[in-house]
Amino acid sequence: MTTSTSVTASPTFLDRVRTYSPPRRYLPVAATVALLIGMFGAGSLRYQGFADPQVVLNLFVDNAFLLVLGVGMTFVILTGGIDLSVGSVVALSTMIAASTLQAGWPAPVTIIAVLVSGTLLGTLMGLVIHYFEVQPFIASLAVMFLARGLCYLISVESIPIREGTFTAFAQGSVPLPGGYHVTPSVVVAVVVFAIGAWVLHMTRFGRTVYAVGGSESSAHLMGLRVAFVKVGVYTISGLCSALAGLLFAAYTLSGYSLHAVGMELDAIAAVVIGGTLLTGGRGLLLGTMFGVLLLGTIQTFISFDGTLSSWWTKISIGTLLLIFVVIQRLLTRRQN
Amino acid sequence: GDKPKPSASSDSITMGFAQVGAESGWRTANTKSIQETAKTAGIELKFSDAQQKQENQIKSIRSFIQQKVDVIAFSPVVETGWDTVLMEAKRANIPVVLTDRAVDSKDTSLYKTFLGSDFVVEGKKAGEWLVKEGDAADVNKDGSIKVVELQGTTGAAPAIDRKKGFEDAMKANPKITIAASQTGDFTRDGGKKVMESFLKSQKNIDVVFAHNDDMGLGAIEAIEAAGLKPGKDIQIISIDAVKDGMTALAAGKINYIVECNPLLGPQLMDLAKKVVAGESVPARVLTEETTFDQAAAKAALPSRQY
Amino acid sequence: MRELLRRPLFWSTLALLLLIALNTAVTPSFLSVRLQDGHLYGSLIDILRNGAPVLLVALGMTLVIATRGIDLSVGAVAAIAGAVACVYIAGSDRPAATSTVVSAVALAVGVCILLGLWNGFLVSVFGIQPIIATLVLMTAGRGLAMLITDGQITTVVNPAFKVLGAGFVATLPVAILIALAVFAVTAVLARRTALGMLIESVGINPEASRLAGVRARTITWTVYVFCAFCAGVAGLMIASNTSAADANNAGLWIELDAILAVVIGGTSLAGGKFSLLGTLVGAMFIQTLATTIPTIGIPAEANYLFKAVVVIAVCLLQSPRARAAFRSRRPVSTVKAGAA
Amino acid sequence: MTQVTTSIPPPAVGTPVVEMRGISISFPGVKALADVDFRLLPGEVHALMGENGAGKSTLIKALTGVYTIDEGTVTVAGTDHRFASPADSQAAGISTVYQEVNLCTNLTVAENMLLGREPHRFGRIDVKAMNRRARSILDRLGLSIDPGSSLGEHSIAIQQLVAIGRALDIDARVLILDEPTSSLDADEVAKLFAVMGDLRDQGVAILFVSHFLDQVFEISDRMTVLRNGKLVGEYLTRDTTQLALVEAMIGRELETLDRLEHQAPTAAPDEARVPLLQVLGLSRKGSLQAVDLEIYDGEVIGVAGLLGSGRTELARLLFGADTADAGTIDVRGSRRRFRTPRGAIGAKIAFSSENRRAEGVVEDLTIADNMLLTLQAARGWLRPVPQRTRDRLVTEYIKALDIRPPDPSALMRNLSGGNQQKVLLARWLITQPELLILDEPTRGIDIGAKTQIQQLVAKLADEGMSVVFISTELEEVLRLSDRVVVMRDRAKIADRFNDESVTVAGILATIAAGGADTKEEDSDA
Ligand SMILES: Nc1ncnc2c1ncn2[C@@H]1O[C@H](COP(=O)(O)OP(=O)(O)OP(=O)(O)O)[C@@H](O)[C@H]1O
Ligand SMILES: Nc1ncnc2c1ncn2[C@@H]1O[C@H](COP(=O)(O)OP(=O)(O)OP(=O)(O)O)[C@@H](O)[C@H]1O
Ligand SMILES: [Mg+2]
Ligand SMILES: [Mg+2]
After folding, report:
1. In a domain, D329, yes or no
2. Nearest CA-CA distance, residue C142 and chain A, Å
3. Same domain for D362 and D294?
4. Using one digit for the tens of pLDDT, what is the confidence trace for B191-238?
C-alpha cells in the first residue's frame, strides 16, 4: 500500500529508500505489547501486589526455559517446519544431567554431554526431514517418543540433583537496582535470546531461514543453502531444547522422565502468539519473547486470583488466550 | 513493593494451596475436601491448580510467597526438586505443609510436616492380602498364582511405590508370580484395553492387581466381555476405595481394596493452624486409612462420602 | 508394480501387516477369532473396536488437514461429548431407558457441532491460525467437560448406551460399524460428489480457488464442523466403552494419534491431496501398535522407545528418498523442484 | 549423433562456455529431452526457441542442476560438471532467471535481489548498503521502487524485473533468462535489452527464451530450436527469417494472419441499447482512480497501458477479486455489487489472472480438475459435473487449445508454463461467460498458440461474448479489439474506437501526453 510500482514514478519515491523496514512487520508484536500492558493494568487494579515489578521479573524467572525453547522453535517455525520433540528433549536433558551428576561427573562435563546429545538429536531430525523428505511433524513426533523413551531407560523415578555448581546456579540470585532480583537462568535466557535475535535478523543464515519459509523451492532455485539451513534450524532447536533442559534441571534441581510433558505446545503457542506464521516466512523473535511473557502473565493472573477451581483454571486460560488472539487479529487485520 | 501483609491480623489465616491438578476423581475429592474444610475452619484459601506440571506448582508457590500468605500447603507432583522454592519460602518465614506426597530433600527444615498416606504401604497391604488369601485366589488350582498388574502412569510416584510395596509383600509366597505388567495410565479406558490384550496373550490369569480402582473397573469390563466372572474366575485387587470401586467390591466383582483416603481437609486445616501459631507438630502425619474386603464394603458403602 | 511401490498406501498397509505378523509371531493366538456370547471375540476384533474412535477423529482430521488446517481440540470435544451424554443420562428421570440415550446422544452431538461451528468461525471468518484457534478449545474444552461432570468420573448404567462403544450387532462391534459407516459416507461425499476436489483445491491454493469461485470460507468452516462431529461421536464411543465419562482422560492425546494416522495414511500436513483409505489404514495401524505393546509384553518403561522405533521405521519406509538411499541408488531427480 | 543441421555458425568466438551433449531427461510418462546438444558461446545472446512444452525450460533446469540428467554431459568453461543444485551452477558462474518468478514474496525487494550475497559490516548484514546496491541495480533497469518494500506488494511484472535484477547482480559468465519479457512492456524490454547488450559486450554469454519473435530477432545472435524434446537445429539469427524459424519450431507452415476477421458489433452507440456492463466511478484507494466504462455484447475492449498503470486492478475490481471503495456496476441495467468473485461469476463474468502461479494454477490437481474447477464451483459440490460431460469438455478443450500432454489426468504442476496458461483459459471458457476478462492471456504462449487464442477470442466475440483484453503487447491489443481503453497512473485516460487511425505510436503518444498532465498524482500512491 505504501509504495508504488509505477515505472514512470517521480523521484519522491527515493525518500522511501531510507525507511528500511515497513512498520507492518512490527504490527503483531506491537499488538502483543499493547495487550500485555493492558493486562498488567487490569491485573494491578484487581489484585494486590500484582503491580510489583518483581512480578514482572518473576515472569522471566519462571519462564526462562520456555524463552530458550521459544527461540529454537521460532527458527524452526519460520522455515515452515515444526518441532514436537522439544518437551521430551527437555526431560531427557534433565535426566542426563541428573544421572550423570549422580554418577559423579563434574558439572562442566555434564553440561557438555547434555548440550551435545540435544544438538545431535536435533541434527539427526533435521537430516531425516531434509534428506528423506519425512514430514517434520512425524519426524519430530518420533524423536519425541524416542527422547521420552530414553528418559525411562535412564530411570523411571525422579533423580534429585545435589551437585554444588547446579545448586549454586539454581539458588543464586542476580540483584538488580531497587531491591529486585532475577536468577542466573534469566541471564542465560536473555543471552540466548540476544544471540538468537542476532543470528535471525542480522546474518545471512537468518535471511535464508525467512527465504526457505517464504518458498522453499524458490530458495532452492535462488541457489541458497537450503539443506544447511533446514538441518541447521533443527540443530538450533535441539541445542536450545538441551539448554532449556539444563535450565529446567536447575529450576527443579531434578531429573524426571515426566518433566515438561506438553511443553512443546507451550513453546509453539508462544511463538505463534508472538505473531509468527505457522506456515513460515513471517515473524520476529521479539514476538516470541512477548508470547512467552503473555503465557506467563495468564498463569500469574490465575494464581493471583486463587479462587478458581481446576476446571475454571483451564477455561480461564482458554478464554484469556482467545481474547488475546482475537484482539491481536483485529489490531493487525488492517494490513490486508 | 512493601505492601502490608494482607492477612496480618491474627484471627484470619491465608493458606496458599498448590494442587497437582484434577487428573482423577480421587484428586477432585481431595480438592473438595480441602476447599470445604477451609471454609468451615475460617481459613482463607488461595487455591491453584498445576495441571500436573511441576513448573506450574513452583510458579504458584512463588506467587504465594509474593502474595505473603501465612502458610503454604501443596501436594508435590514429584518428589524431587523443591529445595530452591522451599528455601525461598523459608526465607520469607512462611511455613510449608506437604500433603499426599512427600518431597525428597535432605533439608527437613524446609517444611514443617507431611500429611498423607504411604504408597509403599498401600502396595504392601494389597500384597499381604494376596499372600494370606493366596490359595483361594488360585482360581484354577494349578498351584501357581498368576498375577497381571495394571500399573499407573509410568514414572508417577504412586505407581512406582505401589508396585514396590506389592512386590515386597508378594515374596512371602513363592507361588505368586507377576506374569505381565503394563501401564493403564490410571484410567478406566486404559485398564480395559490393557486387560483385553492380557486376556488374549496370557493363559490362566488368576489375579489382577490394579494400581487404582479406575483401572480395576476397566479390567472388570474386559473380563466380563471375555465371558468370565470378575471376582470369581479372576480375582481383582485395587487401591483407592472410591465410590464406584466400593460398589463393585460390594457387588463381588472386586475382591479387595486398599483405601487411599483423599479427605485430608480436616487434618490439614488443623495442622495449618498449629503451624501458623508456632506450635510444634509431628514431622509425619499418616492419614487414617483402612482396607476393605467384600463384607466390609457392603457395610461401609451407605456411609461413604466419595 | 512400480506404480504400486510409489503409493504411500502400499507402504502403510505393508507396515500394518508387518506389525500384525510380529504379534502373531509372539502370540500365535493373535489372529484367532472365536464366537463368544453371540459375538466375535479376539485381538483383531479388539483392534477394530478400540480403533473406531481414532478412525473417526482421523477422518475429520483428514479433511481439516486437506484445507491446510489442523484441529487440536478433538480430544477436548470428545471429552465434552462423553460428559454431556453421561451427565444427561445420569441426571434424567429414567437413567436406564433407551429413549434417554437417544436424546443424550442427540444433545451431545448437537453440542459438538456448535463447538465445530466455533472453531470454524475462528479459522475461516476471523482468520486466526488454525493451531491457535483450536488450542483455545483444547485448553478450555477440557475445563468445560470437567465443569459439566463436576470433576468426577460420571458412571452410567444403561445397556443401550453401552451398545455404542462396546456392543455388537450381527457379531460385529457396533463402534467399528459406525466408524466405517461414517467412513463410507465421507468417501462417497468426497469422491462421488465434487466436495473432495473442492476441498483439495482450497488446500492447495486458496487464492486461486477463491478466484475460481470456490466457496473457500464455507468449505473451511464445514470441515471443522465435520471434524467436531466426528470427535463427538468418538467421544461417545469412548464414554460408552467404559460406561463412564472421564473428563480428564477421555480422548487425551487422541489428536496426536489422529494426526499421525492421517500422515501415515499419506496425506501431507501441508494440505491438498488427501487419502481417506490411507487414513483408514493409518488409524488401524495406530491401534494395532497400541495393542501390540501389552500383547507382546513390552515393559511399560520401554513403550515410548518401541513406538519411536516403529514410527521412525514407518516414515523411512514411506519416504521414497530413504528407500532409494537404502538401495544405494542415485536419488530420484529432485521432482520437488518441478514445482518451479 | 544428432547432427546440427544448418551451417555451423562460422568463426566461433573462442570456445563454447557451455557445452551440453546428448542430454536426455525423462519424467514419468514423458521424454522431455531426447539426446539434445547445445552450446553457448561467450559474448553472444543465444535464443532458445520452441513451442510450449518443447523442452526449453527443462533444458535450462538440466543445465543448472535443478534436474538430474539421465544421459549426457555438461561442460562449463572447459570442465565437466554435474551440478547437484542451482547453488552449484551459480558457483560455477551461471546466473539464472527461471520461467516462473521464483522469489520470496515475504521478503523485501532488496533482500530478494541480494539473498545469499548480502553485504556485511561488523559481521552483520549491512541493510543500508544492501538497499543502496539494490537501488543501483533497479536504476539500471529503470525501476524506481523502494528496495525496502515487500516484494509481495508488487505486480507480477515488477517481480519479474526484480528477478532479473537479482540475476544481473551476480557476477556471472553465463546469464540465463527464461521468458523474462513475458509481462514487460516495450519500454521495459528496451531497457532490459540495453543491459543485455552491455553484458554481451563484456563477454557474458546470454541464453534467452522468448515467444516474441520480434524481440528474438532484435537481440539474439544465434538460436537453437527444439521441438518435442528434440533438437531441430542451430541457426545464425541474421541468416534466418521469422517464417523459417516458425516452421522449424512447429514443423509446418504457420497460416499468417494480419487483421483478424472479426466483425465489430454494428458499432456506434445506439443509445437505446443496454450495455452488458455499465461501470460508473469505480475506484479503490491507492489502486485505481474513478473509472467509467461501458461494455456491449460482442465487443472486444483492449486495455493498453504501461506497467503499473492500473489495468490489472481495473480487471480485479470488475470481477470482485478486490472490493471497490466507490462506484457502481450495472449488469444489463441492474445494479450489482461484487464482493467476491462468486458474485461476478454468477453474473457470467470470467477473469483469468495475470499471476498464473499464485492466482490460477492448482498445482496438485489434474488438468481435468483444473479445467472444471470454476464450473464445478458454480454448480455447487452436490452436483458433480457428470462424467460424460466432463470427458467431453476436457477432450474438446485439450484439442481446441492444443494442450500438451493431451492427458486429462496429468498433474498441472508438471505442465510447461504455456500449457498451464491454456488450461486456465479453458477453465473460463467452459463456464461460457458473457464477459471474459483476460489479463495477459498470451503470457508465455508460443506463437502458434497465440494466434489460435486470438482467433478464438475473435470467434467468441462474433458469437456475442464480450471480452476485456489486457496485454502488454500493444500490437496484439490493437489487432483484436473494437475499442481501446488507455490507462495511465491508475486512471483511465482515453477510450476510443479502434479504427485505422489508432496506432501503436499513437497510443504511446497518448500515454506520454497523459503523463504530462497527471505527473503529480502518482506521488501520493
Ligand atoms: N516435473 C515434471 N514432471 C513431468 N513432466 C514434466 C515435468 N516438467 C516438465 N514436464 C514436461 O516436459 C515437457 C517440457 O516442458 P518444458 O517446461 O521444458 O517446456 P517449455 O519448452 O519450457 O514450454 P513453455 O514455453 O510452455 O514454457 C512438457 O511436456 C512438460 O509437460
Ligand atoms: N494489493 C495491492 N497492494 C498494494 N498496491 C497494489 C495492490 N494491487 C495493485 N497495487 C498497485 O497498484 C498499481 C496498479 O497495478 P496493476 O497491477 O493494476 O498494474 P498493471 O497496469 O496491471 O501493470 P502490470 O503490468 O504491472 O500488471 C501498481 O502500482 C500496483 O503496485
Ligand atoms: Mg518453459
Ligand atoms: Mg497487470
Report:
1. yes
2. 7
3. yes
4. 999 999 999 999 889 999 999 999 999 999 999 999 999 999 999 999
Looking at the structure, do residues D37 and D184 belong to the same domain, yes or no?
yes
For residue B220, the SS3 value is: helix
DSSP letter for each residue of C210-262: HHTT--HHHHHHHHHHHHHHHHHHHHHHHHHHHTEE-TTTTTTTHHHHHHHHH
Task: For chain D, give the mean pLDDT.
Answer: 87
Question: Mind telling me how many Å the CA of C39 is from chain A's nearest CA?
Answer: 36
DSSP, collapsed to helix, strand or coil, labels residue A240 as helix
Of C127, C312, C321, the CB nearest to A131: C321
**Distance between D111 CA and the closest CA of chain A, angstroms:** 8
Burial (CB count within 10 angstroms: exposed 0-12, middle 13-18, buried 19+), residue B3? exposed
Does A46 lie at the interface with B, CB-CB under 8 angstroms? Answer: no
For chain A, the structural domain boundaries read 25-335
Which ligand minimizes its atom distance to the CA of D305? Answer: 2
Domain end (from D252, D284, D302):
D252
Residues D214, D324 share a domain: no
Q: Is residue D258 part of a domain?
A: no
Question: Does D278 lie in the same domain as D241?
Answer: no
The average confidence (pLDDT) of chain A is 88
Residue position matching grid coordinates 487490569: A42
- What is the pTM assigned to this prediction? 0.91
Complex ipTM value? 0.89
D364: chain C residues, CB-CB within 8 Å: 200, 204, 272-273
Domain count, chain D: 2
Higher pLDDT, D220 or D6: D220
Q: How big is chain B by its Cα radius of gyration, in Å? A: 21
Beta bridge partners of D235: D223
D71-110 residues touching C, CB cutoff 8 A: 85, 98-100, 102
CATH of the domain at D174: 3.40.50.300
CA D205 to chain centre: 24
**Residues near C279 by beta carbon (within 8 Å), at least 6 away in sequence:** C55, C58, C59, C61, C62, C261, C262, C265, C267
- Rounded percentage of chain D residues whose pLDDT exceeds 90: 58
* D117 and D216 both lie in a single domain: yes
Domain range C38-320, CATH class:
mainly alpha
- Amino acid at residue number B108: T
* Per-residue pLDDT tens digits for D160-189: 999 999 998 888 899 999 999 888 888 889
Question: Which domain, by its residues, includes D93?
Answer: 18-252
The CATH class given to the A25-335 domain equals mainly alpha
User: Is residue D265 a part of any domain in this protein?
Assistant: no
Whether residues D319 and D210 fall in one domain: no
Q: Where are the domains of chain C?
A: 38-320
Pocket test for ligand 1, best of D58, D61, D367 (most atoms within 8 A of CB): D58
Please state, in angstroms and rounded to a whole number, the distance separating the CA atoms of residues D97 and D175: 8
Residue D524 within a domain:
no
Find the ligand nearest to C340 CA: 1
Chain A positions in Cβ-Cβ contact with residue D104 (cut-off 8 Å)? 210-211, 214-215, 218-219, 281
Judged by average pLDDT, the poorest of A4-13, B237-246, D125-134, D512-521 is: A4-13
- Centroid of ligand 3 to alpha carbon of D200 (angstroms): 23
